[in-house]
Amino acid sequence: MSNVSQEKVEATINGKIDHAVWTAGQTATVSFNHFPVSVAEFMQVREQIGNEPHGCIALQVMAYEMYRRDKTTGKECIALNNLKVNINQTINRLTELNRPNDSYARPYQMAAYLKGATWQNGYKPDKPYTVTVRTRPGVKHENSNTFQALILYLDINVEGGKDKGWSPVSVVKTLKPGEASEGKFFIINDSCDMYSQVREVSFAKPFEGLD
Q1: Could you report the per-residue pLDDT of 59-103, keeping only the tens digit for each?
Q2: Phi, psi of 65 (to 5 degrees)
Q3: pTM
Q4: Nearest alpha-carbon partner for 156 in 60, 67, 90
Q5: C-alpha Rg value of the chain to the nearest Å
Q6: Phi and psi at residue 28, in whole multiples of 5°?
Q7: 160/164 Cα distance (integer angstroms)
């Protein structure tokens, strides 16, 4: 991780993903100046952006990267942004991705989801960091009896890290008791592809970390 001044995390949302009506071609972005460094700071950012589906997906990028840096802090943030049923599997997969001295490891996994980062440039993203989300082509919002809410099927852009260029993610805002959503925040219904290995970084451009 690069040296980071302890300035407040500033997150900005641009564009719109309709919560109620699936609309083809909708794209939205979330930009932020650096990753949160504590659970309290993550929760502050969640207050800013967590009520939007693309905000939730940006928070997932943050939580996963925070887990790489500190497992205890990261696990708490993952629990705040995911269905309870997802947490253990997610932690197991992230642990595999971040094992030291392992050829399978991808410490730059979350950098790949930031605008401008490619395997060729050492997964060095543009600043401010930007996450791009779109409505998944041809897959409409689906009513869930389990959550008594709509599940939104979206994609997050992954530049130069996977051949297809987009990773599927679904989110839900539910009042179901025991879920971190509490009817206020979107939380992740599924983001398995986000912890599927991205392409190995270029040997000529090693990964330099994220702020």
Answers
A1: 999 999 999 999 999 999 999 999 999 999 999 999 999 998 888
A2: -70, -35
A3: 0.95
A4: 60
A5: 16
A6: -145, 160
A7: 9
